[in-house]
Amino acid sequence: MTTEAFETLARTYEHEILEFAQDIIKTRSYSTEEKNLVMLIKAKMQALDFDEVTIDGIGNILGRVGNGPRKILYDAHLDTVWAEDRENWRMDPFAAVVEGNLLYGRGSSDEKAAMSSMVYGASIAKQLGLLDGFSLYISGTVLEETCDGLSSVHMIEKEGFRPDFVVLCEPTSLDVYRGQRGRVELKITTTGTSAHAAHPDKGDNAITKMARTVLNIEKLTETFKDDPFLGKGTAVVSIIESKAPSINSVPYESTIYIDRRITTGETKDTVLAEFRGAVYDPEHTTVELTEFEDTSWTGLHVRQEKYFPTWVLDENHPLVKAGVDAATEARGKTPRISRWTFSTNGVAFMGRFNIPCIGFGPGDEWLAHATNEYVRISDLYEAERFYALLPSKLAKEVELR
Fold first, then answer.
1. What positions carry a catalytic annotation?
2. What's the pLDDT tens digit per position in 183-210?
3. How far is 105 from 95, CA to CA, in rounded Å?
4. From the candidate CATH numbers 3.30.450.20, 3.30.70.360, 3.40.50.300, 2.40.160.20, the one assigned to the domain spanning 182-295
C-alpha cells in the first residue's frame, strides 16, 4: 500500500462518513431503545462488504473484517443520555445540524459519530490489506449509559467472544488514552424510631444520624488514595431520602446514595470497609453496593452490581505504542498520552478481564452529556485514518515484543 493510495481512499469516503454520522445521530437511541440504530449500522456494514455481521443476545452489533488469528475490537456504545430539554438546545438535538466544522447533536461526541469513522476505517483496512494477521471487529454496544461494561461482560461471558486487544472509541480529542478511575455506587441506610414531632425526645431521628454520617464521609475523603496518573478517589453523596409516618413525625429511616470514584489500589472491598467505618450508628446502619437491573431491547433481562473496576495500561505496552504511531500518522502530529476522567466499557474489558485497552475517539470528553453537544467533523476523518492504520501498526509492535 502506498501513502497516496491510502489518502485517496480515505478522502473518497469523507462525504459518506459525515452523512452516516448524521444518520446515526438522527436515530434516537436511549438505553434499551437502541434497536433502530443497530439495524442502521447492520445495513451499512453489509453494504461495505463486512465479512460477518451479527447481533448478540443483549442487542450488541458486531461486525468483522479479516480472518486473522488475533482479534482487535473497536468498541463504541450506541445509547445516549436523555435530550428532551429542547428549550436548552440551540437546535434540535436529533437534527444532526452542521455548522462549519462542527456536527451538533446528542451523541455526537459521546460517542455515536465515532461509529461512522470506525466502520469506514475498517472497510479501508480490508480493501488495502492493512489487517496483517488480525481479524478486526467493530462493536456497537448497548446499555452503557446506564451500566458501563455490562454489555461487554455479556459479550465475553455469555457469547464467548473475547478479543485480544480493545480500542475504546469514547472521546479523547484524538489523543491516546490508557486508563481511567473506576467507580462504586453505594447505598447506606440508617434506621431510627418514629415518634410524634411534638415529642422528638421519644424518638430516634434517622435523618440526624445520617447527617452525622455524611459529615464523617466528608472527612473520609481526605484519606482516599491518590495516583499520579489517574488522580485521587472521590465521593459524592448524590441522593438523600427519608421515611416518616407524616411531616409531623420523627423519621424512622434515612438512605443516602454515593458515587465513589476509585483509583489505583482501591476496590469494592476497600470501599465497603471504609464506609462501614464512617457510619455514625453502625448497629442500625447497612452499607451495600447498589444493583443495576433492566431489560435490553432484545427482551433479555439483565442485572449487575454497580462495581466498575479501575484499569490502566502500561505506557510501554505494544498497544499504546501502536496507538501513538497510528495517531501520529493519521493526525500529522504526535498525540498526548492521557486518561479519561469519566468511566467507559474498559471497566469490563480490562478492569474485569485484563484485556489490553486503549482509547482513541473523535470529540472531547467535556462535551459528553452536555447541552449543544458537538464533534469536529475533521476529527471524524482523522479518526477514520487511525482506525484503518492501527492493525498494521500493532502487528509491527507485537512482532517486536
1. 79, 144
2. 999 999 999 999 999 999 999 999 999 9
3. 7
4. 3.30.70.360
